[in-house]
Amino acid sequence: MKLSEIVQHAKGEILNPSIYRDCEIIGGCGADLMSDVLTGVKSGAVLLTGLCNLQVIRTAEMADVHAVVFLRGKRPTPEMIELATEKSIPIISSDMGMFQLCGRLYKAGLHSLESNWKGLHE
Amino acid sequence: MSSTLQELYGKGHIVADSDVPEINRIEELSYDLKTQDVMSRELKCLAPIDTMRTVFELMRESHISGAPVVENNSLIGIISQEDLMHAFADGDQNAPISKYMTANVITVKSYEPVVKALEIFARTKIGRLPVVDENNNLVGMLTKGDITRGVLIAIQKDYQEEEIRRYRASHLFEDIISDRTSLILRYKIKPRDFTNGGQASSYIKRALLRLGASPQLARQCGIAVYEAEMNLIIHSNNGGVLRIQVEPRRILMQTSDDGPGIPDLQKALQPGWSTASELARSMGFGAGMGLVNIQRCVNKMEIESTPGKGTKLFMEIHLRPDEKFKAPPESSEAPGV
Lengths: 122, 337
Fold this sequence. Notes:
Number of domains of chain A: 1
Shape of chain B: elongated
Distance between the termini of chain A: 18 Å
CATH superfamily of the largest domain in chain B: Histidine kinase-like ATPase, C-terminal domain
Radius of gyration of chain B: 32 Å
Strand order of the largest sheet of chain A: 1-5-4-3-2
Strand content of chain B: 15-25%
Low-confidence stretches of chain A: none
Distance between the termini of chain B: 15 Å
CATH class of chain A: Alpha Beta
Largest sheet of chain A: 5 strands, mixed
Order of helices and strands of chain A: HEEHEHEHEH
Strand order of the largest sheet of chain B: 6-7-8-10-9
Low-confidence stretches of chain B: 1-20, 330-337
CATH superfamily of chain A: HprK N-terminal domain-like
CATH architecture of the largest domain in chain B: 2-Layer Sandwich
Shape of chain A: globular
Strand content of chain A: 5-15%
CATH class of the largest domain in chain B: Alpha Beta
Mean pLDDT of chain A: 91
Number of helices of chain B: 14
Helix content of chain B: 40-55%
Oligomer: heterodimer
Largest sheet of chain B: 5 strands, antiparallel
Number of strands of chain A: 5
């Protein structure tokens, strides 16, 4: 799915347009716990999260997350936007809830990049 | 980068990116480059007694739109297409250049930076600037086009140097022969510094990619050291040191601190067991997955911990037999770098 389609589904706002360019996103994950992202998400995902602090951007960098959507209307701080821009990670703000946006994207055909928590992969 | 880091970390404070004033490379170049570096040196000069018809012929043949007027080696004026049109409108083709040229020419010195010329262009709206040396002898001509070309050439040179640096970094382990080669990186981590948490791990991941590690290997190490770095930030009394030793076949990572130490190691290794503060939890950590996660990323993990004394965490990642540090192919640069 194209990142631009994800932005549309999320009715989202791109917060660092200077580095934004449309690209193919192979799958997604939803988490508020950054350790869960580091533990069990394959590289190349869009991360949907209700957490809103600098460590989300650091986690995205470490786990090779390709884009981050901040849910529930949360607005990243200027420091977060700056760091994401420096790391070339597009970040998007959306008023939707976690369940709602995960559902919309999954229904529209975006796969999960989360590990099966018994250790098996999809 | 490493000497800068040592400087920053040596003083015990970490400078955020936002503290560094942002000057882009083009601006930097407009100060670095001198007008003589970008000016054109092939001069088509005219004498004040030449006729306006000579100007017309020179412009037509040489495809230029202006020329300096020189007498006894010194610049006395400049003649442009516009001056030529005036002369032709007056039916005055046989007049000497001195009648139509602009005297009192604005010039720029050959040793002045390009930004000076840009200022003059912006202020005066003139199209070309004669460049003179310290004795006011004409040595070249400068247009905005010359500046653009000069800057582009300088950027291309930068780019090539960057390519060479990358190439050298990624061949480090092939070029240096010893019985055992290691590259050691050390980072001081401050306690409760959630703002800069992950900065060291970010540097480490970047360094590994620079050294030619595969994106997978860099990600694996990055995640392990990030969790370890966050553990120092969340749990240590006084911060600690993160030390990475890169070798051709393995990467050794280590954190050490001077307390509080882990009272029950068995419990600490259980998924979901945590003593982290609310603050750490609010940052998305402290869910008791750190050590478990590290264990998953590395080939070997050992913890030595004495309550009241401190904790040492050793991590080791082995390169697969077919894997080695090598320069990445042109098109597949790792994302997020």
